[in-house]
Amino acid sequence: GQNIDQPTEMTATEGAIVQINCTYQTSGFNGLFWYQQHAGEAPTFLSYNVLDGLEEKGRFSSFLSRSKGYSYLLLKELQMKDSASYLCAVDDTDKLIFGTGTRLQVFP
Amino acid sequence: DTGVSQDPRHKITKRGQNVTFRCDPISEHNRLYWYRQTLGQGPEFLTYFQNEAQLEKSRLLSDRFSAERPKGSFSTLEIQRTEQGDSAMYLCASSLTSQGASYGYTFGSGTRLTVV
Prior knowledge:
The complex is a heterodimer of chains A (108) and B (116). Chain A has 108 residues and is an all-beta fold. In chain A, strands 2, 4, 5, 9, 10 and 11 form a six-stranded mixed β-sheet that branches. In chain A, strands 1-3-8-7-6 form a five-stranded antiparallel β-sheet, with no helix packed on it. Chain A has strands at 3-5, 9-13, 18-25, 32-37, 44-49, 53-57, 60-65, 70-75, 84-91, 96-98, 102-107. Chain B has strands at residues 5-7, 10-13, 19-24, 31-37, 44-50, 53-57, 65-68, 75-79, 88-98, 101-107, 111-115. In chain B, strands 2, 4, 5, 6, 9, 10 and 11 form a seven-stranded mixed β-sheet that branches. Chain B has a four-stranded antiparallel β-sheet with strand order 1-3-8-7, with no helix packed on it. Chain B starts with a strand and ends with a strand. Classes of the chains: A mainly beta (108), B mainly beta (116). Chain A binds chain B through residues 4, 8, 30, 33, 35, 40-45, 87, 89, 91, 93-101, 103, and chain B through 33, 35, 40-45, 48, 55-56, 89, 91, 93, 100-102, 105-110, 112.
């Protein structure tokens, strides 16, 4: 079956670093995506990993280990505007399959 | 190109009525996807098209749901005899798929359906 797991909620303090983990089991794999979604809005693209390793883009980094079926999203220098849901999604070669999302609350 | 457009943004309907949503994808994209998202959950896959062909439908898509993409451009999602459990955000996305790889997944702003 298809399964993507991530924590439901996380909290962190402004200026800190937070890591959101995602584990997956899918029938196919053509890359893993991270999206940010603010309440009532569409998901917006953050990162894409298809090969093992770390991809860095400004304050956001994403890591993938295909052999372990594992990814994480690392957010540095947290800002209040980073309070949102973070969605892990796997391209199973036909479509994106999403986890339930991790709601991150950033406190001052 | 202004990205993926969905219309309407919000729809309130009475139980038992039919509703239809429209999605206009990015013009260069050949795949179009429909997802449903309820509060506190990630988007759930409903169906997707490659050009005008509907290639996969989720078991979530009951007989009351039908989607079309008649000319391989815009798509419509119709829900007949709506139920309160249909209340959700309906998201459309598009991508360019070539030789088995998809690029540029982009989501629309969604249509929020409330069934009363």
